[in-house]
Amino acid sequence: MSGLDKMKAQILKEAETTAQEILAKAQEEAEKILKKAQEEAEAQALKIASQAEKDALNYASRAASAQDMQKKQAYLAAKQDVIREILQKAYRRILDLDDREYFEFMEKLLEKYALPENGEIRFTEKDLKRMPEGFSGRVKTIAAAKGGSLEISAQPCTAEGGFLLVYGGVEENCTIKAVFDSKREELSDQVNRMLFASGREG
């Protein structure tokens, strides 16, 4: 074999060795890359699974919270309905009192709201017709005890029950509805305490 042939053979041998080394190194790098990709994929999968679990727990918590809130709102609404119904029945009960009890109640209202001034009192048309004998005297007595005077007006007020006090053109609304409306919050609290104080709040 000539010197040139030997040189070619040596170059080919070295080239083959170098190629094998490059392939081995490339294969090693490829394996490292694949291993890293696999590890990252597994880590990402775990992260996704963990996040999915958190999301599921959060959703369940929100759903439970929303359900609990709806339950509380329904309970409160039902409670308010009961209180409203009781107050309405109490209002109707006063309107439906027999004449004696009704006008005794009117006296109590007058004792509370009469002013030490001269004026007139306007009852409903229904009350003017059923007013018991001697009641006008009671009105005068109560007004005098407060330092004023009241005359029963022939002009009726347009209410279901109660009366208007008129002093110098200024009206004091003492109708049963006005009294109930002014005391509604206080009465609601009283009914709430009586019915629900020892009960379950939501």
In short:
With 202 residues, the protein is α+β, with helices and mostly antiparallel strands. The protein folds into two domains: 1-68; 98-183, ATP synthase, E subunit, C-terminal (hypothetical protein PF0899 fold, 2-Layer Sandwich), CATH 3.30.2320.
Q: Order of strands side by side in the largest beta sheet?
A: 2-1-3-4
Assign an overall shape: rod-shaped
Mind summarizing the main beta sheet?
A: 4 strands, mixed
Calculate the mean pLDDT score and round it.
82
Helix amount, in percent? over 70%
CATH-derived topology of the largest domain:
hypothetical protein PF0899 fold
Give a topology summary.
Layout: H1 3-95, H2 99-113, E1 118-123, H3 125-130, H4 135-145, E2 149-152, E3 162-167, E4 170-175, H5 176-182, H6 184-196
Parallel strand pairs: 1-2
Antiparallel strand pairs: 1-3, 3-4
Helix pairs in contact: 1-6, 2-4
Task: Kindly list the characteristics that best describe this protein.
single chain, 202 residues, alpha+beta, hypothetical protein PF0899 fold, 2 domains, four-stranded mixed β-sheet, 6 helices, 4 strands, 11% strand, rod-shaped
What does this structure look like?
The structure is a single chain. By secondary structure, this protein is an alpha+beta fold. The protein folds into two domains: 1-68; 98-183, ATP synthase, E subunit, C-terminal (hypothetical protein PF0899 fold, 2-Layer Sandwich). It has helices at residues 3-95, 99-113, 125-130, 135-145, 176-182, 184-196, and strands spanning 118-123, 149-152, 162-167, 170-175. It has a four-stranded mixed beta sheet. The N and C termini lie far apart (104 Å).
